[in-house]
Amino acid sequence: MKRLRIFVLISSLMFTLVALNAQTLEPGDGVRVQLYNVEEEVTDDYFIQENGDLQLPFIGTVVTGNRDFQELQLEITRKYTAIYRNPELTVQPLYRIKILGEVRTPGVYFVTGVEHLSDLIALAGGETRDAALKRLHFTDRHGERDIDAREILLRGNRLADVGLDSGVQLYVPRKRFITFRNASTVLSGMALIVTAVSLSRS
């Protein structure tokens, strides 16, 4: 029981550091449950259904609507503790983030909020050579804003520090100037056009 109290206290302190707008999970988001020292296979990622229900093994349905994550975390911990004696249990949120633009594998990814911005970019395969990290476009339910990824990377900020929300879209723009590589491609293309026109006239 003492271990459970310590776990709940540490978890509460951790998630107090998370921005307020990152507290609510939406349908399509999920939780990562890690339960050790038990025979049953419980450890996995579980996702919230459209009606707001979260189905977890052996404890059934957890209703997530209009409840912040700390409350859900405590309910899940309490229910598993009622089944297993002194379980080694962690419960983390999984927020959907869409990464677009100048990254190698754009798409939707799930993060817990404790990752750094560099981890998020790495999830998407890393930035391309044409990525403009000075002006990332950040869109969430509260609006749009630009952030300087280079400054955030230097500071070592976590995603929660820059404002994490369900359904966030991060767009990595292309550099505005033409790189030497692109300029060479453009010049080569122009040379081919000039050659083709010259041959057609001869």
General description of the model:
- By secondary structure, the protein is α+β, with helices and mostly antiparallel strands.
- The protein folds into 2 domains: 93 residues, wza like fold (2-Layer Sandwich), CATH 3.30.1950.10; 78 residues, Roll (Outer membrane lipoprotein wza fold like), CATH 3.10.560.10.
- The chain is built from 6 helices and 9 strands; from the N terminus they run H-E-E-E-E-H-E-E-H-E-E-H-H-E-H.
- Strands 1, 2, 5, 6, 7, 8 and 9 form a 7-stranded mixed β-sheet that branches. It has a two-stranded antiparallel sheet with strand order 3-4.
- A hairpin with a 2-residue loop joins strand 7 and strand 8.
- It is elongated, with a radius of gyration of 23 Å.
- The N terminus is likely disordered.
Short description:
By secondary structure, this protein is of the alpha+beta class. The chain has six helices and nine strands; from the N terminus they run H-E-E-E-E-H-E-E-H-E-E-H-H-E-H. The chain has helices spanning 2-16, 69-83, 117-123, 149-155, 159-162, 180-201, and strands at residues 30-36, 44-47, 53-56, 60-63, 88-101, 107-111, 136-140, 143-147, 168-172.
Note the main attributes of this structure:
Outer membrane lipoprotein wza fold like, disordered N terminus, 35% helix, wza like fold, 7-stranded mixed sheet, 202 residues, two-stranded antiparallel ribbon, alpha+beta, 26% strand, 2 domains
The CATH superfamily of the largest domain is identified as wza like domain
Q: Please give the radius of gyration in angstroms.
A: 23 Å
Helix segment tally? 6
Alpha-beta content class: alpha+beta
> SSE order in H/E notation?
HEEEEHEEHEEHHEH
End-to-end separation: 91 Å
Flag low-confidence runs: 1-22, 183-187
**Into which percent range does the helicity of residues fall?**
25-40%
How does the overall form come out from the CA principal axes?
Answer: elongated
**CATH third-level topology of the largest domain:** wza like fold
Q: What is the tally of beta strands? A: 9
Supply the number of structural domains.
Answer: 2
CATH architecture heading of the largest domain: 2-Layer Sandwich
CATH domain class name of the largest domain: Alpha Beta
Main pleated sheet = 7 strands, mixed
Mean pLDDT: 78
- Beta fraction of the residues? 25-35%
Q: Assembly type of the shown chains?
A: single chain
